[in-house]
Amino acid sequence: MRLPADFRQDDFELLARIAQRYYIDDQTQAQIAREFALSRPKVQRLLERARWSGIVDIHIQAPPGLNLDLELELRKAFHLTDAIVSPSRADAQSQREAVARSTAHYLVQHLRDGTLVAVGHGRDTGEVPRFFHPAHGLDCTFVSAMGGSPRADAPTNPNEICRALAERCGGHAVSLYAPAYVDSAEMRNRLLEQEAVAHTLAVAAQASVALVGIGGTDDGCTMVRNGCLSVDEIARLRSEGAVGDVLGNYVDVEGRLIESPHRLIALSLEQLERIETVIAVVSEVEKPPAILGTLRAGVIDVLIVDAGNARAVLDLDEASRSTQHLPTAPRRDARLAGTQTASQRR
């Protein structure tokens, strides 16, 4: 403990006595204020001074695998509402299950009757229902936030994920009967004019919670694997700086939207920004650039990730800012209130 040079003995004693009353004796600030003839705001300031001066040193005995420091770093670096970092695992499937388990637990803690949840696609998102076991029924509605793909495994399609989550809690599922990508912009426009498609997307846009994955841009990424994009298309997106996507919306490493083929049927980044709590779940080892770009886009509120990716993203963020002299990530509410959203910068 290193106290300021001008710290007097009587100040030291007063702070120690007040800290003892509050942290050890469980007295309230009002009780302490009466005992020492101080105001409650004065007691609060003295307790804060005891913390930063080192008189009070709080130690939390966390269980093995809990990464509180990494979670704090992520929240501060990207102005997140919350960050959950699961322990690292030896293989990809075990890692995916660990992150999915953390996500399911987070949903159980935070979903309430009447919550409308927009749901994306992918292997990480699709693993969540396996571990989603609310103790009591939840009257929640899960709605697809993007189209699916006939080539995708059932657990990774948004409609199937919605149905599985709804079954686990006794809730409801709203499906989007359209592919994620269609053959042309003209076909996309025609589909969006259909009441069934337009209605489902309108419902998803009104959600208060969104559960999404973060996709990559390698030739084996979900969008290519499921036949939504060709290898040539994903290569073109990479050449234009794309590092990852959310709901098929691609961004570069600085969070700027990359123009993608006008064939996507999904919520836009602008619509996603307006959802109160957007939860991103991600575990694959190749994802740090994609995670960083998505976080910088300002559309994620809660990141649930493995320890390896968490550390890699923080290191990548620090390295890129030091070389490019970038400012710290803007707060999400500031972006919404600003003159331009990510979608408007296209």
Topology:
Elements lengths: L8 H16 L4 H8 L3 H14 L14 H11 L3 E5 L5 H19 L5 E4 L3 H5 L13 E4 L13 H12 L2 E3 L10 H8 L2 H11 L3 E5 L8 H4 L5 H9 L2 E5 L2 E4 L16 H5 L3 E6 L5 H10 L4 E5 H18 L7 H6 L9
Parallel strand pairs: 1-9, 2-3, 2-5, 3-4, 5-8, 8-9
Antiparallel strand pairs: 6-7
Helix pairs in contact: 1-3, 2-3, 4-14, 13-14
Number of domain units: 2
Percent helix, as a range, is: 40-55%
Described by strand count, sense and barrel closure, the largest sheet is: 7 strands, parallel
Radius of gyration, taken over Cα atoms and rounded to an integer in Å? 24 Å
Question: What would you say this structure looks like, in words?
Answer:
This protein is α/β, with parallel strands linked by helices and 346 residues long. The chain folds into two domains: 9-53, Arc Repressor Mutant, subunit A (Orthogonal Bundle); 68-345, Rossmann fold. It has helices spanning 9-24, 29-36, 40-53, 68-78, 92-110, 123-127, 158-169, 185-192, 195-205, 222-225, 231-239, 269-273, 288-297, 307-324, 332-337, and strands spanning 82-86, 116-119, 141-144, 172-174, 209-213, 242-246, 249-252, 277-282, 302-306. The chain has a seven-stranded parallel sheet with strand order 1-9-8-5-2-3-4, sandwiched between helices. A two-stranded antiparallel ribbon has the order 6-7. Helix 2 crosses helix 3 and helix 4 packs parallel to helix 14.
